[in-house]
Amino acid sequence: MDYSDIQTIEHDVLIVGAGGAGIRAAIACAHQNINTGIISKSLLGKAHTVMAEGGIAASLGNVDSRDNWKIHFRDTMRGGKFLNQWRMAELHAKQSPDRVQELEEWGAVFDRTDKGLINQRNFGGHRYPRLAHVGDRTGLEIIRTLQDFCVHQGISTHMECTALDILLDSGSVSGLLAYWRETGRFVLFKTKAIILATGGGGKAWKVTSNSWEYTGDGLGMAYRSGAELIDMEFTQFHPTGMVWPPSVKGILVTEGVRGDGGVLLNSDGDRFMFNYIPEKFSSETADTEEEGMRWLNGDKEARRPPELLTRDVVARAIKKEVEAGRGSPSGGAFLDIASRRSANFIKRKLPSMYHQFKELAEIDITEKPMEVGPTLHYFMGGIRVDSDTQQTAVPGLFACGECAGGMHGANRLGGNSLSDLLVFGKLAGDGAVNYIDNISKNLICKNEDIVKIIKNATEVLMRDEGNNPYLIHEKLQNIMQNNVGIVRTGEELSVGLEKLNEIKSDIKNVCVNASAQYNPGWNEALDLKNLIITAEAVTRAAILREESRGAHTRLDFEGEHKEGLEYNITIQKTDLGMVAKKITRTKPSEELEKIANASLEELEKI
Ligand SMILES: Cc1cc2nc3c(=O)[nH]c(=O)nc-3n(C[C@H](O)[C@H](O)[C@H](O)COP(=O)(O)OP(=O)(O)OC[C@H]3O[C@@H](n4cnc5c(N)ncnc54)[C@H](O)[C@@H]3O)c2cc1C
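# flavin-adenine dinucleotide complex -> structure
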């Protein structure tokens, strides 16, 4: 085969993924008159970003003027248990207000305060009301705005086109091979730089808020091309996913419910979160229901209620209540906003939640509590990048958004993903433009590499018999759910790793025996190649981190260990297979360290 037979498209910069990060990166490139293309596994605008509910975090200070970037930075570092890349957290806190204002200039209509400013709501781990929002449909407004703006910048979008692998010339990016999902035909993108913005890999778990696209494709492609992954042990279990009916288990219930006053109750009707306040957060958390209510009503002297502790803390508390026999009938907890807010308020502030429960569970949340439990939601870990340019270790390969790691450390605060997408999407676009400006040589996509990728992708179509990809995916999800779950032990993780190794040989023998055209079985078989890398990377990193920190809880290594602060874990492809190793963290500047450890009173004065 000669690649001249394959459809070829050329762009200076190619972006993989049309969520918030990918589109923002594309806009940054187009602003500098670069020939920019976006490819997306699904339709433009159909991404995780559109599903985002609660809001986007930025210290605009519209609702509480004491807020500023330093307090946002401090909250983010504390939420991430001090494992975040300091520089990323700094850039994020400083630049997110500008990115939100810019969205407004591009046409996003956020909810307003009485004074006509962008309204901001409370969320877990954020000291002040900080989340700009549009009811509980914030992602829809963000993606609509970005999408409209992107189309008017003349950016080429290639939809329902799945990236398979990156092509390199002497170690630098030279192209990417993809296929059209509709026809199954291959397409070669020749490009000088690639920005991966493919989102997370939640579909490696059985109970997840993630949709079908999130199979860790960017992680797999980056790993295969020689980039490192970082912080993969930190997978966020959001405390409130639907637990009933079984067909919708895992679908997200926004933290906005708690931000707007919802409380968690056990089967005895007790508001149990008061029993789970960690020492570190006790001075900033209300210790009575009355104080929590005063805080919600805007009393600046009161402290926030314990339902708004970070997600890791709340998810573990629900799990403990269930284990103690105080769970709800379907194995979760009750989330009650009905007895706290009027029906009008709930319908206005949480319209999607109202409809979601009405349609899917036949429950009216203005009258009854919801049943909720933890669901795999977000990857703190991802592709390792330079904080300022978002470049990976592979020249010409960039990553941003959920598929990039480092910004959130051991645990992400709600709302910090949407702002991450915009801040680092822009920086990745700027980084890629700067990179291609300095390339003088002509880059080659080697025929033999293209043939190898096509052979790997099509062998499952040639076999007469073999394993069903859907059943293997289910097996993988069960392993991750049972062995690499919300709480972990070394033994369970090692057994999980062994089982994943067995699955690798099952994957080698997958058969879909049909044409590549309109073939979801083939799509599933191809996704497995990335899912297994994602699952193995999480498991190996989780084995290596022998402490409990943020979203990573080891029953055999309780609590945070001091030395755990000194390293991050990276994952790399070697001749011996996948290797996880500890790398020493770089020291922050004196100024950042001081801000992260300052008292709120000191920072509020700034
Ligand atoms: C239900 C829900 C609610 C949420 N609410 C909030 C919230 O209120 N606030 C907040 O900050 N965060 C929230 N999050 C998290 C946040 O929405 C995501 O982390 C974020 O949108 C990820 O954006 P992204 O641009 O990195 O990727 P995504 O928006 O996930 O987009 C990924 C893109 O990559 C494409 N893609 C993937 N693989 C390939 C491939 N092989 N080839 C081509 N294209 C590919 C996909 O088709 C898609 O276009 C929520 C998440 C969920 C699931």
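# post-check
Residues 520-544 form the longest helix (25 residues).
The two ends are 65 Å apart (CA to CA).
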